[in-house]
Amino acid sequence: MIVLRSEDEISSMRSAGKIIKATFEVLRKRVAPGVRTVELDTVARQEILKLNGIPAFKGIRVGSRSYPANICASVNEVVVHGIPSERVLREGDILSIDIGVKFREYYADAAITVGVGRISEEANELLSVTETSLAKGIEKATVGSRLGDVSAEIQKYVEDHGFSVVRDLVGHGIGSALWEDPQIPNYGKPGTGPRLAAGMVLAIEPMVNAGTYEVETLADGWAVVTCDRKLSAHFEHTIVIREGGAEILTA
Ligand code: MG
């Protein structure tokens, strides 16, 4: 069941979204060659708490495992769920940062991918195509359209530019839990899936690979990597479906 949220609930999620945006602004300035991803985790935690949010990923359970950090920091071939570590960022890396925040019992979730120093032309194109595919998907997310319209738009834009969309991981509804119905694939057919209605809150998150769409999970049980170890990028926004177009809560 897809829950329709009240304006009060949406207002809390908007506050959570603003905390995420502010945290990204701080982190963007910190990302540089020589920085360890665990440092970014500490900075993010401090910023979120300072703004009266709660880092939503820490301790979240998936099966029998509990996520050990405040953010996800996924470098290069890591698609998502990279655990911040002593890994040192190097010039030319790309880093996906995913942040979830809880504010007054409601959640927002967003991700960006940034270059570390100067990055290759291909990496730059991958970031740009992934970010634009998210914007294209959001343009389709309006009252009366179908979820498949959003998914198909993202897939088409990505594949038209020679990249691939991950199949094994999807976006999701969000509200009083971080993951709610519906699942939101980044591939699909127009005119299929649930019809979108005002008040639905969705986390749309294209994960785009430079090579194959196939992914696998590393031995730590969290980090998802591309099977061919080529680069992957990830952008995500939490949005509310409204008449005439979505409102982005994390922009
Ligand atoms: Mg998400």
Bound ligands, each once:
magnesium ion
Class by SSE composition? alpha+beta
How many domains make up the 3D coordinates?
1
Largest sheet: 5 strands, antiparallel
Strand order of the main beta sheet, please? 10-9-11-16-17
**CATH fold label:** Creatine Amidinohydrolase
Shape: globular
What sequence of helices (H) and strands (E) makes up the elements? HHEEEEEEEHHEEEEEEEEEE
Query: Which band does the percent of strand residues land in?
Result: 25-35%
**Mean pLDDT value:** 98
What is the CATH homologous superfamily assignment? Creatinase/methionine aminopeptidase superfamily
CATH architecture: Alpha-Beta Complex
How many strands appear in the DSSP assignment? 17
Radius of gyration: 17 Å
Please identify the top-level CATH class. Answer: Alpha Beta
Helix content: 25-40%
General description of the model:
This protein is an alpha+beta fold. It has one domain: Creatinase/methionine aminopeptidase superfamily (Creatine Amidinohydrolase, Alpha-Beta Complex). Helices cover 29% and strands 26% of the residues. The chain is built from 4 helices and 17 strands. A 5-stranded antiparallel beta sheet has the order 10-9-11-16-17. Strands 1, 4, 6 and 7 form a 4-stranded antiparallel beta sheet that branches. Strands 5-14-13 form a 3-stranded antiparallel beta sheet, with no helix packed on it. A hairpin with a 2-residue loop joins strand 2 and strand 3. Helix 1 packs antiparallel against helix 2 and helix 3 runs antiparallel to helix 4. The longest helix is centred in the first third of the chain and has 24 residues. The radius of gyration is 17 Å and the shape is globular. The two termini are 26 Å apart. The model has no long low-confidence stretch (mean pLDDT 98). Magnesium ion binds next to loops.
